[in-house]
Design a protein that fits this description.
188 residues, alpha/beta, Rossmann fold, 6 helices, 8 strands, globular
Length: 188
């Protein structure tokens, strides 16, 4: 039997009858709030495996209702996220509406983002989606984060997509995020 992306019953290069497999990917969403869960539900309905991070156990039930896997971890303590990268194809940094002190937000979009990306480079991650627009994060920090993402992904030849939709426009945000993940998957 040949497991390839051909039609069921076709002969593969090896001469065996082919079995068709759905193209699936494991997508990890850092930022398991409402929008992250909506994106997860869409991706799960498209038969992708999705893992969402949350800072606290209290977020587990809402995440699991989407059909996604919950991972308790936080960008504030990057060691709690390292294991979550296992078998991930597309990594989504969806923190444009993060809250915190100026110092916490600056670290989230500079040193923590950079360190996390350097950890992701030596994994199965083959695409990165960065949320570059938000409501709680200053625009200059989002722009600095985008520059960091572009620099590190370019150096490592990892395709990147930048989400620029207004997070307050839920339908447009979801459409752009879903399209970006699908586009990254075609390049991965």
């Amino acid at each position: 039997m040949c497991w390839s992306r051909t039609q069921i019953g076709d002969r593969g290069a090896c001469g065996a009858t082919c079995v068709r497999c759905a193209a699936v990917a494991r997508v990890m969403i850092v930022g398991g709030g409402c929008r992250g869960r909506q994106l997860a539900a869409t991706l799960v309905s498209d038969r992708h495996a999705v893992r969402i991070t949350t800072r606290a156990e209290e977020g587990r039930a809402a995440i699991e209702r989407t059909g996604a896997e919950c991972w308790v971890g936080t960008p504030d303590r990057l060691a709690t996220l390292r294991g979550a990268l296992d078998s991930v194809t597309i990594l989504c940094w969806m923190l444009g509406t993060a809250s915190g002190s100026e110092e916490e937000l600056r670290a989230l979009f500079t040193t923590r983002l950079e360190f996390f990306l350097t950890q992701a480079i030596d994994t199965t991650v083959r695409g990165f989606l960065y949320e570059a627009r938000g409501t709680g994060v200053p625009a200059d920090l989002l722009a600095e984060g985008e520059r960091t993402v572009r620099r590190l992904t370019e150096r490592s030849a990892i395709p990147v997509a930048v989400l620029t939709a207004d997070p307050l426009d839920g339908a447009e945000w979801l459409a752009q995020a879903g399209a970006a993940v699908e586009a990254l998957l075609t390049r991965a």
